[in-house]
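User: Here's a protein and a ligand (S-adenosylmethionine). What would the complex look like?
Assistant: Let me lay out the input and then the predicted complex.
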Amino acid sequence: MLLQELKKILKENNFFLSKSLDQHFLYADSILKREVEYAEINTEDKLLEIGPGIGTLTEKILEKTNNLTVIEIDSKFEPLLQKNVGEVIIGDALKVEWPECNKIISNVPYSISSPLVFKILEQPIELAVLCLQKEFANRMVAEPGTKNYSRLSVNCAVRADIEFLETISKGKFFPIPLVDSALVRLRPKNIHLPEKFDDITRAIFQHKNKKLRNALMDSYHEIGTKEEVASFVESLGEIVQTKVFKLTPEDIINISSQY
Ligand code: SAM
């Protein structure tokens, strides 16, 4: 879609875009097409798109399949979406029930990136193709020992196979956002993790530059009683001297399985 066409749709429908709902529309046809290609859509697939807005990406998905449901929080886009999409759910993607699907595609509203990605990681789906803030995408794929390595990186590594696909310049959106974006593909692994994995990961990454021993004790309340966590620390051996940001995802699985 050309920028003039996008502006025409907004004008004709009297759409005023909401900053708080992250209403920045990607309009570059070649990128939208590639984004859909990354989803490897075939005839059996059931797709979910989150945050379609006026439907720039939706239009490209519909060139591949009609088996699509969209979830959009802003009801002003409903009439436009109803024209082409079989099932339109108006509501907050973090609150409404998601329809059954095997692939998710979304130009993610940046303010809900973190809870949305964590939710997607838990879905029994084949893959998700997501457009996210570039810095956020960098944190998703960050390796242990690097400055971007975080609780998000650990969760992405253990719960999915993840690929950073390409950077998208902020100039490809209207209105132009403050930051560049990136496309990421996730293939959730739906693996079984130790019961305390989430609590321990959350606790220790609150102190990622500290040694594991100190990080665990400083956030013991996230895990158990002070006495329980102290005795856990003593049982772990040498690894408690390692700084949190140097622990690999496998180390963290191993540590949590010992609680
Ligand atoms: N898909 C369009 C595109 O590619 O140009 C728009 C993406 S825009 C970054 C984000 C869209 O998500 C907006 O249409 C916004 O109204 C919608 N949105 C924001 N928060 C949402 C939420 N919690 N649940 C569902 N949709 C939401």
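Summary: Strands lie at 25-26, 47-50, 68-72, 87-90, 103-107, 127-133, 160-168, 173-174, 181-188.
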